[in-house]
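Exam revision sheet. Question 4 asks you to relate a sequence to its structure. Input first:
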Amino acid sequence: MTGKPHILIVEAPYYRAISEELGAGAVETLEAAGASFERITVEGAFEIPAAIAHAAGLFRTGLRHGRSQYDGFLALGCVIRGETTHYDYVCNESARALQDLAVTHGLAIGFGILTVENEAQAWARARRDKKNKGCDVARACLGMIDVKRRFADETNDD
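Answer key, structure tokens:
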């Protein structure tokens, strides 16, 4: 696997303006790195892991393990605590499922689902002139692609 990486950005635009800011930070970073990318949206953060699994070809028969048209994935969204335990389920299960995809299937995933108490916290993390988490998760994904390539090259040297 050589060349510039091709990334799938999976966005949950429940909080549209926050999601757009995360996406803008991610896109700036990917473009600066020379990566190509595609973007899709899903209804909410809970649906992001399944969308990534579908895009990675994990549900297709006959597909070689680990083969996908994408080198990496970005999971972007925001979950703000409400009055019920729904927040806990969405946060915990989406994070767990994404980590399972990364570890079990070797996917390079940038985790950019903000899990916050309120909208002010979300904006502090999403804004490109603040913490710019969109940028951070794009860098994380690109870094994991480099790790995968390094070890794939070592394996192919045998």
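Marking note for examiners. The CA atoms of residues 76 and 112 lie 5 Å apart.
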